[in-house]
Amino acid sequence: MVVIRLSRAGAKGRPFFNIVATDSRNRRDGRFIERLGFYNPVASGKDEAFRITQDRLAYWQGAGAQLSPTVARLVKAAGSKVAA
């Protein structure tokens, strides 16, 4: 099964996450099918904290991919910011 989840990168104490489509059996930071965006929880100032390609997200969800709870929360929050 394909899942869309976070893959950790960045230094110790400075987390950075890639949003990836991967097989659910792969490790968190292991092999992935496609990178869809990123999440930077320590972004400040003009730095962008979250970006995801909506068309590729829609494609993978249409193909049956499941969002992890954290990615679902981030997408929902970003959608409400755009709508507001």
Tally the helices: what do you get?
A: 2
The helix-and-strand class reads alpha+beta
The low-confidence runs, each spanning 5 or more residues with pLDDT under 50, are none
Mean pLDDT: 92
Q: Please report which band the strand proportion falls in: under 5%, 5-15%, 15-25%, 25-35%, 35-45% or over 45%.
A: 35-45%
Please give the largest β-sheet.
5 strands, mixed
Number of strands: 5
Biggest sheet: strand arrangement:
4-3-2-1-5
Instruction: Write down the Rg.
Output: 13 Å
Shape estimate: globular
Oligomer: single chain
- How much helical structure, as a percent, in the residues? 25-40%
Briefly say what this structure is.
With 84 residues, the chain is an alpha+beta fold. 29% of the residues lie in helices and 37% in strands.
What characteristics describe this protein?
29% helix; 84 residues; single chain; alpha+beta; 5 strands
Describe this structure as you would to a colleague.
This protein has 84 residues and is an alpha+beta fold. 29% of the residues lie in helices and 37% in strands. It contains 2 helices and 5 strands. The protein has helices at residues 54-62, 69-83, and strands spanning 2-11, 14-23, 34-39, 50-52, 66-67. It has a 5-stranded mixed sheet. β1 and β2 form a beta hairpin. The radius of gyration is 13 Å and the shape is globular. It starts with a strand and ends with a helix. The mean pLDDT is 92.
